Amino acid sequence: MSPVAAYAATGDILAERVSAMKNPPESIQALDAADPLAAFGARFNLPVGLIYLDGNSLGALPRDTPARVARAISDEWGRDLIRSWNTAGWMDMPLRVGDKIGRLIGARPGETVCADSTSINVFKALSAALQLNPGRKVILSEPDNFPTDLYMAQGLTGLLNDGHHLVLKTPDEIEAALDSDTAVLMLTHVNYRTGRIHDMARLTAKAHAVGALVIWDLAHSAGALPVDLNAAGADMAVGCGYKYLNGGPGAPAFIMVAGRHHARFSQPLSGWLGHADPFAFSSDYRPAEGIGRAICGTPAVLNMTALECGLDVMLEADLGLMRAKSLALTDLFIAEVEARCSGQGLSLLTPREHRLRGSQVSFAHAEGYAIMQALIAGGVIGDFRAPDILRFGFTPLYTRYADAWAAAEILADILATRAWDRPEYKARKKVT
User: Fold this and answer.
1) Coil, strand or helix: which one is 213?
2) Are residues 308 and 379 in the same domain?
3) Is 391 designated active site?
4) How is residue 352 annotated by DSSP?
5) Is residue 111 classed as helix, strand or coil in its secondary structure?
């Protein structure tokens, strides 16, 4: 059943509206027909009729992934068993996959490793940055940074218990707050709530000017827009594999460390596979050369296999074309929603300026949670972020202009008919 049909079945919208929502105007159809990335849509397994606008939380399944993971299970694990650490290249996966990620974020070969979770990698990066800047006590960030980054900073400062502390400033206050006591500036490049982009090059330069290091969280950047860490002079970066990189739930994360820091990079999670010679089985830790010292535990082989499939599709696409389509999709969605939903209590949180906008659109509404549940019931999947944010992610490889147009139409009808005003849509679920 199509999203329009599913929603119509609730009896909440007029029948004549349903037909219109099924058939976007010729101008919208023309945009999809002319889309140079249109062929990539067939590379993903999305249910027919579903409008998926949540790739910024969980990317769609690449069609090649099930067969590739099945081979890893049946042949590499099932048949070859432990031999696959050598014969299938399992041991090399963190560096090989890391370099593929590096191509998307402006890292040089050997600067990125795929490992662990974003949270763990934040801990590694922060620990290393504080050691690289001894005597400085401030970790500078913003109140609206993603919580896990702030939580890991709080945990680390509590563990160190030597005067290090987290200082939170609004984006407009960050530059003025940078001073000689700032050890590290830690920011998420694209804000997870609003989609606002920080000026990576400018803030990195400002931090370096006062002797601070910079860690960038690329969770909402990698695979969504062009990123050039080396051009910006970034010191370190982290990010996840399950959003725009389409690695699947639980996909491993990554950490990038600029080559100039490798010799002095030291992090306390000194696991066996971060050792220079793990199969010497020495009782004393000696860090591996280069980015390998950022590895902690055993590679998540099956998860990393899935992630590599997502990366291989991504690397076939032109990031410049993806960025242009992302901006066009979000422009269209903003314009359609504002044209159809005037006076319905929506407030745009996402910047209108292209230079400041990531690949999502966020609106605030007092009944945001219930509205999003009504949208999901109608076949339009976005997500909700407390306290009142409806968040829509646009993934250029598989999101069509017709999807953006129809999602705005269905949202307008939900608001106009108050279809959201039902007890089942207001009952909070564990995941929002």
Assistant:
1) strand
2) no
3) yes
4) S
5) coil
**Distance, CA of 376 to CA of 4 (rounded, Å):** 11
Q: Which of 242, 265, 398, 425 is catalytic?
A: 242
Give me the catalytic one of 54, 149, 217, 403: 217
The sign of the torsion formed by the CA atoms of 273, 277, 283, 284 equals: negative
Q: What gap in Å lies between CA 238 and CA 124, rounded to an integer?
A: 10
Dist. CA 95–CA 404, nearest whole Å: 37
What DSSP state is assigned to residue 418? T
Catalytic, out of 293, 325, 391, 400:
391
Per DSSP, 380 falls in state: E
Same-domain check for residues 120 and 154 = yes
304 and 323 both lie in a single domain: no
- Within 10 angstroms of residue 329's Cβ, the number of other Cβ atoms is 25
The domain tally of the chain equals: 2
Residues 34 and 146 in one domain: no
Indicate if 133 and 174 belong to the same structural domain.
yes
Active-site residue, selected from the candidate residues 146, 369, 394, 401: 146
Do residues 167 and 301 share a domain?
yes
Which of these is catalytic: 124, 136, 196, 243? 243
In a domain, 401, yes or no: yes
Determine the 3-state secondary structure of 90 from DSSP.
helix
In this structure, what CATH number is given to the domain that contains residue 341?
3.90.1150.10
Question: How many Å apart are CA 412 and CA 4, to the nearest integer?
Answer: 13
* Structural domain contains residue 405: yes
pTM of the model: 0.94
Give catalytic status of residue 363 as yes or no.
no
Q: What are phi and psi of 131, to 5 degrees?
A: -70, -35
Same domain, 218 and 367: no
Residue-range definition of the domain harbouring residue 35: 3-62+318-426
Residue 181: active-site member: no
> What is the pLDDT tens value at each position of the chain, 432 positions in all?
454 455 455 544 434 444 455 579 999 999 999 999 999 999 999 999 899 999 999 999 999 999 999 999 999 999 999 999 999 999 999 999 999 999 999 999 999 999 999 999 999 999 999 999 999 999 999 999 999 999 999 999 999 999 999 999 999 999 999 999 999 999 999 999 999 999 999 999 999 999 999 999 999 999 999 999 999 999 999 999 999 999 999 999 999 999 999 999 999 999 999 999 999 999 999 999 999 999 999 999 999 999 999 999 999 999 999 999 999 999 999 999 999 999 999 999 999 999 999 999 999 999 999 999 999 999 999 999 999 999 999 999 999 999 999 999 999 999 999 999 999 999 999 998
> Is residue 116 in a domain?
yes
11, 105: one domain: no
